[in-house]
Design brief:
This protein is α+β, with helices and mostly antiparallel strands. Helix content is about 30%, strand content about 20%. The model has no long low-confidence stretch (mean pLDDT about 85).
Length: about 325
């Protein structure tokens, strides 16, 4: 089968060698190479540790250091690799290659993605402190009607597009640990607008939405959508009804306290499934569940009853009986 990357691999290998230096264990059939890890060298205060623990799978577009790979920045996509260890010119050259990759999602289906940095909509404007200013007023009033304060707008970097592709839509971005956008969702403020929701064309299963805001030492809440996320402190939105592999792996490796599955009234069975998926290994006994009252998802409960009452609802989370 023809690969869209045919003819680009050697250019990519040349660029990897420029940024990372010499390589070993080049398995051409598997499209994998091993390099010395710059982070390991920095930790050991040497130019190179000569261990060749940084593995690059240029066929799948990912990399990982088997020595320090749990450290931030030592695993991810090849774009991340050039962003972390190269310079702006290296990033630019990689982007021009237009590499396309394929991976298997949680349903076992092959999904294509293009490895590229998220481009912020040019029409995006932050709504922080804009509540009384002309065209932004309607957007701010919509957020206010949902209980979202200016403080929350600032915390989650909520914005607004007044025209363009996302005209008249609220924009909720996800930022990585370097404050770069890695995903965003948008929501129309008009009741009958179609489509109501429009997301960026990146793959949501390749990121953990706003992971940089999570305190892993505290209770972590798993919710469905972005407005549930804004309403719920220390939460991660699934952006759907499934815990995809990267989210599962991140929770399992990083959570140090309780993890609570907040279950919408129309997704009770799914919530129990997520509970069972996470309740094992190092997280055994740490997973709780919270069945939201009939007719109320987290965002609606927060909007209707206010934050203090919502906190009381969150504290009613509990373990399922075996």
């Amino acid at each position: 089968m023809f690969s869209p990357n045919e003819g680009k691999y050697q250019l990519l290998i040349n660029l990897l060698t420029k940024v990372l230096g010499d390589f070993r264990k080049h398995h051409e059939s598997q499209m994998q190479m091993a390099f010395n890890c710059p982070t390991c060298a920095a930790i050991k205060n040497v130019v190179s540790d000569n261990k060749y623990n940084l593995e690059v799978h240029y066929g799948k577009g990912i990399y990982n250091c088997w020595s320090c790979g749990k450290t931030e920045g030592t695993h991810g996509t090849i774009y991340d690799l050039f962003y972390n260890f190269g310079d702006k010119n290296d990033v630019s050259i990689y982007q021009t290659l237009g590499m396309e990759y394929e991976y298997v999602n949680k349903d076992g289906e092959k999904v294509e993605r293009i490895d590229r940095k998220i481009i912020i909509p040019s029409e995006y404007i932050s709504l922080a402190d804009k509540q009384s200013l002309g065209v932004y007023r309607r957007a701010y009033q919509y957020l206010d009607s949902r209980g979202i304060t200016n403080e929350l707008i600032k915390k989650y970097n909520i914005g607004w597009c007044y025209d363009g592709k996302y005209a008249n839509k609220i924009v909720i971005p996800s930022l990585d640990n370097d404050d770069n956008w890695n995903y965003y969702v948008t929501r129309a403020i008009e009741k009958n607008a179609k489509p109501k929701y429009m997301n960026c064309d990146a793959d949501k299963e390749m990121i953990v939405f706003n992971e940089s805001l999570i305190n892993w030492d505290k209770w972590v809440f798993i919710v469905e959508g972005p407005f549930d996320h804004i309403a719920t402190p220390n939460s991660i939105p699934m952006l759907g009804k499934g815990i995809y592999p990267l989210l599962h792996k991140t929770i399992y490796e990083k959570a140090k306290n309780k993890v609570v599955i907040l279950t919408d009234p129309d997704a009770v069975d799914e919530g129990v499934d997520f509970y069972r998926q996470l309740d094992g290994g190092r997280l055994l006994g740490k997973i709780l569940i919270n069945f939201m009252p009939k007719y109320y998802d987290p965002a609606k409960y927060f909007e209707k009853f206010g934050f203090e009452n919502y906190k009381k609802q969150l504290m009613q989370s509990y373990r399922l009986k075996d």
